[in-house]
Amino acid sequence: MVPGYSNSETGVAVPPIPASGASLRIGCFFFTIYPSEIMNPGNRSSARILTMKQKTAMPLFLRAIFHVSFLCMLCVAAGTGIAQESAGSDPPVTEMVLEGTVRGAQNQSYVQVPFHVPAGTERVTITFDYTEKEQHTNLDLGMLDPAGLRCWSGGNKSMLTVGLSDATPSCLPGAIPAGEWNVLIGVPNIRPNVESHYTIHVYLSKTGAVAQQPALLREPLRTGPGSHPTDESQSVGTPGWFRGDLHMHTAHSDGQCPSQTGKMVPCPVFFTVDAAARRGLDFIAITDHNATSQYDAMRELQPYFDKLLLIPGREITTFQGHINFLGTTDFVDFRLAAGNVPDINTLLGNADALGGITSINHPTAPSGEICLGCGWTPATKVDMHLLTAVEAVNGGSELHGISGIPFWDKELNQGCRLTGIGGSDNHRPMEPLDHMSSIGMPTTVVYASELSTPAILDGIRAGHVFIDVEGTRDRMLEFTASIKGAQAEAGDAIRANNGADMRLQLHVTHAAGGKIRWIEDGKEVSPAGSAEIVSDDQKFSLAWTSDGRRHWFRAEVTGADGKLWLVGNPVYINWDRENQCAAH
User: Fold this and answer.
1) How far is residue 343's CA from residue 335's CA, in Å, rounded to a whole number?
2) Largest Cα–Cα distance of the chain, in whole Å?
3) Residue 63: enclosing H or E segment and its boundaries?
């Protein structure tokens, strides 16, 4: 979800207006060509297509015909402003720029600017700007689909987006019908002798993956550093650590909170987001069970919570395990062993094709009547390459003997390079933040280039992650391995030949009173020096000699009572991913 929206000024009381008139299309031979300057009587404006970046799939022979014929069209239309960018390799977004003029004679009327939406479109996004505002020109913004009114914002928005499951407040989410759409411009005021020039950018998306949306729908909330950098010299624009929670539930599945009269009711999304903001988190993923309806509420809340990134996610809940799916609003069929989803590999393959990332949730939880489908119990062999991560720490599970860390260690030993993450699995957002499994307990801390959904997910893919089990605002765990000038961070791979000496280094802050643990291939390694953390900022190192074989190292910090405080991700030594991690 993306910043840049505000609450609706007016409702959608305007009756549906039927779409009519000519549409604007680009093409030649197999395409209908319309004049670039279309003068429409009555309520249509003078409009022209300035540019169009055609990014939709097209058979090769049609593409060739299109390019040849378009050269002819450019010669004819050189003075009209029609232009075409090469189609390239079928990126998922089509971009158009529409331009026209509203005149004084159109005062207190409505102007329609048409554009064509092809089949397969999942999101329509427009931006709107116009001139002569200093002359007290006021133009309102709305949008029509082929069935009628889809958006009406009045004059309080300059950008609208409509998707399958979410939309700008004042717009309706839902199916995107192919055909003629219109930008609807209301003209509450324009002086008799004034001409106002408007520019409309139209973006047509064929996917729900955030990373593949128009740039304005994936702008970062911050460009760095993270809210808790370890180096105070870091400046804006540099990467940093960002703290978040990747697993929680709201009224859109089984999240609950007390009503005004004290009854437990489905809990509005606002309370979950507000709790995360009070915790001081940088990002959250709201992961309701199999639902996508929460995305519309997130679209409304994101502009207000402009310090907290809301990542679209859901918990794909099956009878054979629960899987977090992050980074896209696209639907994934969760009906395992039925219809088109015969096994988990099919489900994971379908999810992977949509551009999100997947993680096994609470893999060692009980299943059956105790917790329906909660444990990881696939009925067939699973290709673990289709997964990105595993929930190594689920809120409070490690205190009840069902930690996901042993499962994670086992997968690592089988060659499966899965990032260890944490999630509160919160279902009661109004509980005090010091309660176990409250929002942000545990916190997943990700090193990323910026605070945006694509950057956070890239950080998770790379394994540049540690888990703050108690959800503090400042504990840090930075782990590196170095050999002969080469250095790897947690999540990275490094080569070490037989007999080569390697140094493992650990930087821990704000964890005085704790104790470090070095973990090699799932087993604790005793350090030569002290493991006690006696200061607020302390470094440790471990010398290790390679035997030339495949290994992994990570680090943990525990409290004086042995409870986990921090869990790091591994550095991978001599790791050949292609030849490891067989289906199991």
Assistant:
1) 9
2) 86
3) helix 60-76
- Please give the single-letter amino acid code of residue 285: A
Q: How far apart are CA 455 and CA 460, in angstroms?
A: 9
d(C-alpha 103, C-alpha 198), whole Å: 11
Closest to 428 measured CA to CA, from 250, 245, 246, 244: 250
Q: What are phi and psi of 68, to 5 degrees?
A: -65, -50
User: Across the strands, what pairs with 197?
Assistant: 101
| CA angle at 329 for the pair 392 and 451, rounded to the nearest 5° | 65
Contact (CB, 8 A) for 349 and 235: no
Alpha-carbon distance 49 to 203, whole Å?
Answer: 13
| Both tokens assigned to 529 | 């020096």
Cis peptide leading into residue 442 (ω within 30°): yes
pLDDT tens digit at each of 584 positions of the chain = 333 322 222 222 233 333 333 233 222 222 222 222 223 333 444 454 444 443 333 333 333 333 333 333 333 333 323 333 333 456 689 999 999 999 999 999 999 999 999 999 999 999 999 999 999 999 999 999 999 999 999 999 999 999 999 999 999 999 999 999 999 999 999 999 999 999 999 999 999 999 999 999 999 998 765 544 444 444 445 789 999 999 999 999 999 999 999 999 999 999 999 999 999 999 999 999 999 999 999 999 999 999 999 999 999 999 999 999 999 999 999 999 888 999 999 999 999 999 999 999 999 999 988 888 999 999 999 999 999 999 999 997 876 778 999 999 999 999 999 999 999 999 999 999 998 889 999 999 999 999 999 999 999 999 999 999 999 999 999 999 999 889 999 999 999 999 999 999 999 999 999 999 999 999 999 888 899 999 999 999 999 999 999 999 999 999 999 999 999 999 999 997 556 788 88
Reported pTM:
0.84
- How far apart (Å, rounded) are the C-alpha atoms in residues 56 and 146? 21
